[in-house]
Design a protein that fits this description.
- The protein is of the alpha/beta class and 409 residues long.
- It folds into 2 domains: 202 residues, Glycogen Phosphorylase B (Rossmann fold, 3-Layer(aba) Sandwich); 187 residues, Glycogen Phosphorylase B (Rossmann fold, 3-Layer(aba) Sandwich).
- Helix content is 35%, strand content 17%.
- It contains 14 helices and 15 strands.
- Strand 10, helix 7 and strand 11 form a beta-alpha-beta unit.
Length: 409
């Protein structure tokens, strides 16, 4: 069998699957990825073709179309790569790709007989999702029109793909009903044998101090510190938490860029800077540690020593970090937003609060860090992930069945 994987940041969501396929002698894989940055986790035995970033839109392009023009250009670039592959004799049986940046637009024209599986991460809506959720960052009159055009590449993809894949039921439900029969719901999978409890774990702070399970440690993790992941709400809860619990240490993981939504308004260059300007004078900053982006092993160690992990999100794409924190056995305080509520039941696998209520977040965090939780909740959280999303025992088999590789060939 021949499989072509395409993703701007490959291996990304397909990391575990690629590792499985690398162990199968009769499976031939080619990957396509943008740029020259390291593709950590992509199997060395498989060829990886890199394409250069495409130029953006022209100065006269309508502002609704600027993103789509970039996607078209990227789609054309990937098409040239695929035509070259085809000329050299590689014709895939399956194509597994992320359509989010336009790479899939013309794949069926090059490989009409390949079974195209598209990773449907998020279909944008003017209501019921991330847009218009947070009144602090309101949408404008043109937002619904821009979003309609922003979905253009996804609509093309949903028409041409043979099947789509969404990691959660809620993310799948955001697509138009016309395409629902095409969508299969299956998470990427969590390596619960790696993300597991470790009572002996330690985490080293930037100043050299070490934290362990003996400390009271409040953790927050996001790719970047921004409103979509409730960073502003979390920061507003910290003054009360730190004033009440004099021994608490707060470790915040994430960069200062913006992955989703609007950038902070001047004079602030990051949301960390903006929130420190708002609440920094009320914080004991010797106990608030911004550690940036961490190597995976350090990140897991931090989760393993966490007394309480806070996860907040707009109704949006589910973070791997929530499921990894559950797998590690963290005590979790999370927002009652989809798709979080698809994974967590209040007081069974975690504790749920309203996204916007930073005062309740503070009060609940104080209670939980001082022993108001239950060991059963931690165990239940891990058991949920092990039963439903463990890659080795659950997701791997589903992928192999889907691909018709039950016998490993």
């Amino acid at each position: 069998m021949r499989i072509l994987f395409i993703h701007q940041n490959l291996p990304a969501q397909f990391r575990h699957l690629l590792g499985t396929l690398a162990q199968m002698p009769n499976v031939e894989v080619v990957g396509i990825r943008q740029g020259d940055t390291p593709a950590q986790g992509f199997p060395e035995k498989f060829p990886l073709i890199r394409y250069k970033p495409s130029p953006g839109s022209g100065v006269h392009t309508h502002h609704y179309l600027r993103g789509f023009e970039g996607q078209l250009r990227r789609g054309q670039t990937v098409t040239r790569v695929c035509l070259d592959l085809k000329s050299r004799g590689f014709v895939p049986d399956w194509i597994i790709a992320h359509p989010g940046w336009g790479e899939t637009l013309f794949l069926k024209d090059v490989f009409p007989d390949a079974h195209l599986v598209s990773f449907l991460e998020f279909y944008y809506r003017a209501e019921g999702g991330d847009v218009g959720f947070d009144p602090e960052f309101p949408s404008d009159f043109e937002t619904p029109f821009r979003l309609r055009i922003k979905n253009t590449h996804l609509l093309h993809d949903l028409v041409t793909c043979d099947e789509a894949l969404a990691p959660t039921q809620w993310q799948a439900s955001q697509a138009p009903k016309l395409f629902q029969p095409k969508i299969r719901v299956m998470h990427d999978g969590i390596r619960t044998d790696i993300a597991q409890p470790n009572p002996n774990a330690e985490f080293r702070l930037p100043d050299g101090r070490r934290l362990s399970c003996k400390n009271r440690v409040l953790t927050y993790v996001a790719r970047n510190l921004e409103p979509y992941r409730g960073f502003h709400i979390f920061m507003r809860a910290l003054p009360e938490i730190l004033a009440t619990d004099r021994s608490a240490q707060v470790v915040i993981v994430g960069g200062d860029e913006v992955s989703y939504g609007a950038r902070p308004k001047p004079p602030h260059t990051s949301y960390r800077e903006q929130m420190l300007a708002e609440v920094g004078s009320k914080l004991d900053l010797t106990r608030v540690h911004f550690v940036g982006k961490l190597p995976y092993a350090d990140y897991l160690s931090l989760l393993q020593i966490s007394s309480l992990h806070v996860y907040l999100t707009y109704p949006f794409v589910l973070s791997w970090s929530l499921l990894e924190a559950m797998s590690v056995g963290c005590q979790i305080l999370a927002s009652t937003t989809p798709p979080v509520t698809e994974m967590m039941v209040d007081r069974e696998t975690g504790f749920l609060i309203d996204f916007f209520d930073h005062r309740n977040l503070a009060a609940k965090a104080i209670d939980l860090m001082q022993g108001d939780g239950s060991p059963d909740v931690r165990l239940n959280a891990r058991n949920f992930v092990c039963k439903n999303m463990d890659y080795q025992s659950v997701i791997r088999r589903r992928w192999l069945d889907w691909l018709g590789l039950q016998n490993g060939s």
